[in-house]
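Need tokens for this chain, all 119 residues.
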Amino acid sequence: MSDAKKLLTDWRARQPAFDAAMAAAKTLASPPADSRPPAPSPAALGLLLRTVASGTTIAGAIESLGLSARVVRRLRELNPGIDALVVAASGRRRRRRAMRRTTRTPGARLAYRLVEREE
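Here are the structure tokens for all 119 residues:
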């Protein structure tokens, strides 16, 4: 045992106040048992789904609502029902965007442009 360890052990044995202070410091230095942020409330999940369905990306919706991306990802992994709702909401967004792209006037023809490339 090194001299420093011997000295520390001696101080802890002789001084109960020092021993208690060292034990308290060790307790404060260790991470808490449950350091995970709380799960989002049902109202927050509803807002998340509405925001995603309206066209915002999932990451953008999580950020705008002030939720933790890690918590939402864990919640989606643990609960297939919530994951299905989020996927359905994002799919609805994709369908809306696709409908806007494919809407053309009846009888409109596609136009192509020829481009020459030199390599």
